[in-house]
Amino acid sequence: MTGAFVIPIYDKRNDFEYGYKLTESAIKFSSVKDLFFIFSTLEQQNKFMKECDKRFGKRPSGILCDIDMSRCKNPVSIKKYYAINILKNRYDYIAAIDCECIFIRKTDNGTLMDEIWNTDSYLACNKSKTGANDVKVSIEALGLQQNKLLLEETENQTITWWFNEIPVYKSSTLNEFFSWLNDEGRYNIVFENWSCFDYLVYVIWLVLYKDKHLKVYNFVADCGLIEDLCNPKCKTKYKKEKALGVHWTSRLYKMPTNSNIHLVFHLDRQAPMKIRIVNWYRRHILRKL
Fold first, then answer.
1. Computed from CA positions of residues 145, 224, 184, 190, in that sequence, does the dihedral angle turn out positive or negative?
2. What pLDDT, on the 0 to 100 scale, is given for residue 34?
3. Would you give the DSSP letter of residue 264?
4. pTM, whole model, 2 decimals?
């Protein structure tokens, strides 16, 4: 099995610095050539790649998205779809992540994504308020608010699966998915609605047409449960992470360790601990290699 990661990135704030950290971790633990950053301009792509050459002597892959985003309300999702569509015939699986991630252990992309898909861990859900509202908005925007199957599976639109697991797309489903997305104005709906996050829409389609069933766990969070682990006030983080059987986390990866976890995400959400995160990563991960 083969797998690639796609990552939208912009030359703003600290995004490039996060991208360099992700690249460095992929060089150490994964396959840097299967890491595809999605750029808005050739100038930004060249700047990023030259700095990778300078820092690491290696560079990830790049995709230049030439879509006019001037009126787009959901550019991150659109850029992810753009890259996924380009790569769908080259890889068995594609995962769409953000730049504020790092790999923390040796990772075979295809094996990891195949496990995520076959264990259905990507369907893990929790009760939510803000997160469930994004699900609700997406369902309504797509004109599916009366769909009995979706109402049943989402427990009347009170749950979310967003970022509970690495968002993995199976390439063999994507021709059908994009055909559906491009029909009846659905692509434009996603283009014009910030809450229609790419993986919310994909999983909605899987539930409707591929007999997938959401796995609802008895946990409550304002957003996705695993996304909430970066919150210093969140309790029993390790228990929640293990219960869902997922393969990434937003908690500061310290004891107790979890052998399932391959990536840490939302490093940007842990602002008070940014320096500690970077120092910990260098001390406990890079020095062991």
1. positive
2. 98
3. E
4. 0.92
